[in-house]
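Milestone M4 deliverable, item 7.
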Amino acid sequence: MGKWTVACVSISLVFVGCAGGASQAEQPSEANGPAASTVASGAAPPSSASPAHIAASAPPADMVEVSAGPFLRGSVPGVGLEDEHPQRTIELSAFYIDRTEVTQADYARCVDAGKCKAPVCKKDRANDWDPAARATHPVVCIEWEEARGYCAFAGKRLPTEAEWEKAARGTDGRFYPWGNDAPTCERANYYECGKKGTVPVGSYPSGASPFGAHDMAGNVWEWTADFHMAEYYVASPAKDPEGPSAGESKIVRGGAFKYGASELLSAGRTFDDPTVHFEHVGVRCAKSKDGL
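Output delivered:
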């Protein structure tokens, strides 16, 4: 995992700790992330559409809809990593994103169809891929190209980094999918909770995002479509950004069971070697509302 230098600040009642680089992977941050703030948690935007229109445009059963429009991308000044700035308003077209991380049962269907390779985990984590015993756990130990291939098999695609962030934090600039309160083990699976591995997807309904997506903080990091570039936020398009056209590392988002609470911020950016099979990296897929 790659990381950039983090700033330590105290804002109102919110404390953001000095997060260790995810490249120091197995070492959890001592910070517990921001404490409760005075900013109220947002709610999913209400729909004014008629019942007939809702039925006609309902997302696929395993996905949630993220409405078109603006959202705040990135971290506020003095918070987060260098490559998370500046915070800007970004406009996205409507899209769908998986309600949960792709499960082992989901991925096994692609393997059985001969369209995906079985995940390859390290010897000491060989049991992390066991679709018979861990059917509802997120698939792990897949490299970026394999994640992309699975999404194509499912008739979907990888989300862009901007899509992932909007789906995770909504439109109000909150720190976490659930709002601005500090992480707890009732909302996410991260290092301090002591699980030492994944849990079934959707285990933390109180940690869901404003759009209804689960596990966008913790459990496993998730591959996105974008290459990483440190300065990308400075000059990226303000409408439907698709990330740099080339690079060496791919962006992963969301934190994982073996990383500390400070890694759960929805604006947090981490990048990784796309050719490595990590036991703490999985995937969720997306789909444009008007097609792939």
